[in-house]
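[Automated response] Your request has been received and processed.

Submitted sequence:
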Amino acid sequence: MQTAAGDLIAARWRVLGPLAKGGLGHVWLAVDERTGRTVALKKCGLPKSLTPEKRSLVRLWVPREARAFARIHHPNVIRTLDVLLDGDAPWIVMEYVPSRSLLDLILDEGPMPPARVARIGLDLLAALTAAWDADVLHLDVKPSNVLIADDGRAVLTDFGPAGSKPGVAALAAADVILGSPKYVAPERLFDLVTDERCDLWSLGATLYHAVEGRTPFTRDTTDDALHAADAGTPDPYELAGPLEPVLTGLMRRDPATRMTAAETRRRLRRIAPATRRTTLLRAGTAVTAAAAIAFAGVAFADQPAVNPSPSQSPSPSASSAPAIARPAALPAGFRWWTEPRDEYRVAMPADWKPSFRGGRLTCTAPDGKTVMGVSRWTTPGDAVVALTAVETRSTLAGYRRIRITPGTSGAVWEYTYQDPEAGRTRALRQIVEVGDQSYAVDWRAPAADWSADLPTLLTVLPTLSRVPAK
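Generated structure:
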């Protein structure tokens, strides 16, 4: 049975939309109808290449192993919240972290600077150490299983079907080795030997991909790549720079000579900047600190509206955000625009052109490139959940999320996309409270003009307010 938005899993988890697809199943964004918490739901499918006997064994071990993973509590590890059986496959309920996969970032941005990769490596090493301390192995470290959260940290997700030592032994005895060959340690593939050093090999292969922009074994065929991995001979380095000795040490064929976790950590710290926590927004843009605090949402109002059924009733987060301070007077060079029914007013640059249609205000700059919109926000419940659900249905060309967060003044969503006429465009949506009513303030501009236009946006947003009594 196919899963779709709106489905209710185990009489509790309402599916909002797809998040990702992996080798062992699909991941969906969902909301807990009891608490309103946003979560990620993984439906654990199985490779078709497995025999019926092996499929039964893996299906048996998935729930047991997921409970082992739930013992891990660390900011660089996606938490397992629950394991349940519903329908034809196990489901794993996981913590939802707004993010993009490391693989997507590599595909969009190309090779990453060594210092940034070193920061990611330190986060992943911390995650693996926490897992090992809980007597769990990951066994599938690769770029698609690494999330770069909106707050900048790297988070390890999608532990394999067996990470505890009994689980690993049971699957190995049945000759079941799951994982991506170009990231799996050769001793697992060829010798059926598995321990913490296997995760270190995969960490090295993942960091190689991040800094070089390609997998470490780009041979013509999978067999050639496997033989290269067995020989411990990754492709030549071109961009790794100071990371080269670390990657070479992590991908040594003989586990006994492989670089240890302690030595890896020491070397990565030398390469990574002293201040490690850098958000994606700061890393990718020249936005001022004030703008980074005030905003972080995007998506223009031509996106479809989201109206969850009343039964979803997630806990409100946007409504609990602090209100934006209102200016005492009209800013110089601006004029007031008042909603026809006197619901609200907002300042707009004096030379911008307003239009009002279908309950939505649209203000356009003289050059026609920068546009602001204001409309009522009537979606009940958690605005972050609603905005994320809209994102899952987006068909914008070249879409790339910057972040979706609760924000200091209401939920915000920010991203870029490729406009067929304007080229690379950046957009923002912020949910703002005015009295007992919420509004979506939208802003879009050519990406190249974003920083220059931010002072106008920062001036406009605090002016959205009730119409003064006459």
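Summary generated for your ticket: The first helix runs from residue 52 to 69. Residues 45 and 452 are 48 Å apart (CA to CA).
If you did not submit this request, please reply to this message.
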